């Protein structure tokens, strides 16, 4: 897997210029007027492997990156409900468990009690998430961080009030805790169905927000769509396929995300 990651970085750096978040924000302010092909790499979910595995590789290659963090999970204070579901599913061999959604997440804690799974214990021994001191060190190493909501809900299932709470409270937390001079956010799961009123209300508080719908333009100028790379396919294959579909969609005028 690390070999694949290195190969992907080889492909990316050969074809595109790596830029920092500060450069990306500057480009955005400038309306993306540039003739260069560039990329900025980001990672969601704030897992500890970012510190242990990913950051050293990126540092060696001098590739800047942004890590998007769920503020409730920093220091292993809590666990993403989908993780809880998969731990439970493994224990009780009930795959239906994985279909549980955000609004049922309390049920997971009750179920865990019944089958005697201690999530606190799991967090203490496995330490899946970054700690505050690891995040501070990553920042000292030159990496940038952003918010990925408080506890990773699916935004189109939340009221606008809760969407704002999840977004602004996680942004504020990081800003205060780590003295950030920039403000970026990536949507957990997807930004699909997130309305324009929401974006209007956060516009003055963020530099850039990020979705993961692939190469697409968004009617919200500060919401950039990223190319997801979490599959088994190589970066080269993913990017070439993305460009192909983008061209197709352009022909049929379907490459812009409009929002209600
Ligand atoms: Zn995520």
Describe it for me?
The chain has helices spanning 2-15, 21-29, 49-61, 81-92, 105-114, 119-126, 132-140, 160-178, 196-202, 235-251, and strands spanning 17-18, 38-39, 41-43, 65-69, 144-147, 184-186, 208-211, 217-218, 223-225, 256-257. The longest helix has 19 residues, at 160-178. The chain is α/β, with parallel strands linked by helices. The protein folds into two domains: 2-77 and 128-257, Glycoside hydrolase/deacetylase (TIM Barrel, Alpha-Beta Barrel); 80-126, no CATH class. The model has no long low-confidence stretch (mean pLDDT 91). It is globular. It is built from ten helices and ten strands. Strand 1, helix 2 (21-29) and strand 2 (38-39) form a beta-alpha-beta unit. The strands form four sheets. It has a three-stranded parallel beta sheet. A three-stranded parallel beta sheet has the order 6-7-9, with no helix packed on it. A two-stranded parallel sheet has the order 1-2. The protein binds zinc ion (ZN). Zinc ion binds at residues 44-45, 148, 152, 188.
Provide the fold topology:
Blueprint: H1 2-15, E1 17-18, H2 21-29, E2 38-39, E3 41-43, H3 49-61, E4 65-69, H4 81-92, H5 105-114, H6 119-126, H7 132-140, E5 144-147, H8 160-178, E6 184-186, H9 196-202, E7 208-211, E8 217-218, E9 223-225, H10 235-251, E10 256-257
Parallel strand pairs: 1-2, 3-4, 4-5, 6-7, 7-9, 8-10
The chain binds zinc ion.
Zinc ion (ZN) is lined by residues 44-45, 148, 152, 188.
């Amino acid at each position: 897997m690390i070999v694949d990651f290195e190969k992907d970085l080889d492909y990316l750096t050969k074809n595109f210029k790596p830029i920092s978040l500060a450069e990306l924000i500057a480009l955005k302010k400038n309306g993306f007027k540039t003739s260069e092909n560039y990329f900025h790499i980001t990672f969601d979910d704030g897992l500890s492997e970012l510190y242990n595995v990913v950051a050293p590789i990126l540092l060696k290659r001098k590739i800047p990156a942004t890590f998007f963090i769920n503020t409730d999970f920093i220091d292993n204070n809590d666990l993403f409900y989908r993780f809880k579901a998969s731990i439970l599913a493994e224990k009780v061999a009930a795959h239906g468990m994985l279909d549980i959604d955000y609004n049922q997440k309390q049920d997971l804690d009750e179920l865990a009690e019944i089958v005697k799974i201690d999530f606190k214990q799991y967090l203490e021994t496995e330490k899946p998430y970054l700690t505050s001191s690891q995040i501070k060190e990553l920042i000292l190493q030159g990496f940038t961080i952003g918010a990925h909501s408080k506890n990773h809900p699916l935004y189109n299932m939340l009221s606008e009030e809760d969407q704002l709470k999840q977004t602004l409270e996680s942004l504020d937390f990081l800003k205060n805790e780590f003295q950030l001079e920039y403000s970026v956010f990536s949507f957990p799961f997807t930004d699909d169905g997130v309305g324009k009123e929401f974006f209007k209300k956060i516009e003055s508080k963020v530099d850039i927000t990020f979705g993961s719908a692939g190469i697409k333009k968004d009617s919200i100028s500060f919401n950039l769509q990223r190319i997801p790379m979490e599959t088994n396919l190589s970066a080269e294959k993913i990017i070439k396929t993305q460009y192909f579909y983008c061209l197709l969609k352009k022909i049929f005028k379907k490459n812009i995300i409009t929002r209600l």
